[in-house]
């Protein structure tokens, strides 16, 4: 599969991510830490990551004997000659095959293994972002933890190649948060915003974490920076609406939710937002 095709997969996953996040947000009121930064909002990282061998074995069970044999041949194809070249080829073929079967996590794993051998900044971050995006709506907490851990390893390698790349630093922070190392991720994000106060992705993630940890004033400050630069950023608008709602600014919250509705253009989603608005109007 060409990278352009992978991008289509990734873009589709982003849309799903937004819809799932919008439907599942339940802001929490937690005590702020003494340093006034974002509290540890997510407890999901306490779950032990699943093992890839178990994930792979489960995924293979319903496959036909022909497909299982094809996978086995690809898995054992790195035996002689140029191991790196063979590995890149085999991992790429496995990624394509699992993608054709609709299994994004396993496809991302093999894409990541291919990227590790290539040692390419772009390939490493691409595979990591596939993991991070899919993990947002994975049903099994252990699988989510595994995906976050996989992404973290890939991004650490990418960061070694480009230590001053803020996009990689933000993605790495996201993987740390999702794997349970929340304060480590937050500190990484703060380092990014110290050098670039208007960094969109860092402020967006900090704003989201502020909402989920009940630090709504900080959330408004962060998310407003994002909206000022990207008025059509639906994720920032949604979380900003949640922050306004939590602080009693119902009029402002409703206005933000209405903007999100207009931008998403999804009837089911709009109906859910309307019902949500009625619940606090």
Give keywords.
globular, mainly alpha, 281 residues, 14 helices, single chain, Serine Threonine Protein Phosphatase 5, Tetratricopeptide repeat
Structure commentary:
- The protein is globular and about 65 Å long.
- Helix 5 runs antiparallel to helix 6 and helix 9 packs antiparallel against helix 10 (200-212).
- 38% of the residues are buried.
- Helix content is 74%, strand content 0%.
- It has helices at 3-24, 52-60, 65-75, 83-100, 104-118, 121-135, 141-161, 166-178, 182-195, 200-212, 216-229, 234-246, 250-264, 267-280.
- It contains 14 helices and no strands.
- The protein has a domain at 31-185: Tetratricopeptide repeat domain (Serine Threonine Protein Phosphatase 5, Tetratricopeptide repeat, Alpha Horseshoe), CATH 1.25.40.
- With 281 residues, it is mainly alpha-helical.
Can I get a quick summary?
This protein is an all-alpha fold.
Seen as an oligomer or otherwise, the chain set is: single chain
> In percent terms, what proportion of residues is strand?
under 5%
The CATH topology of the domain at 31-185: Serine Threonine Protein Phosphatase 5, Tetratricopeptide repeat
What is the element string, with H for helices and E for strands? HHHHHHHHHHHHHH
Query: Helical region count?
Result: 14
Overall 3D geometry? globular
**Biggest beta sheet attributes:** none
What is the average of the pLDDT values? 86
Rounded to the nearest angstrom, the distance between the terminal CA atoms is 48 Å
Low-confidence stretches: 1-45
CATH class of the domain at 31-185: Mainly Alpha
Radius of gyration: 20 Å
- By secondary-structure content and strand pairing, the structural class works out as mainly alpha
Classify the helix fraction into a percent range: over 70%
CATH superfamily of the domain at 31-185: Tetratricopeptide repeat domain
Give the strand tally: 0
CATH architecture of the domain at 31-185: Alpha Horseshoe
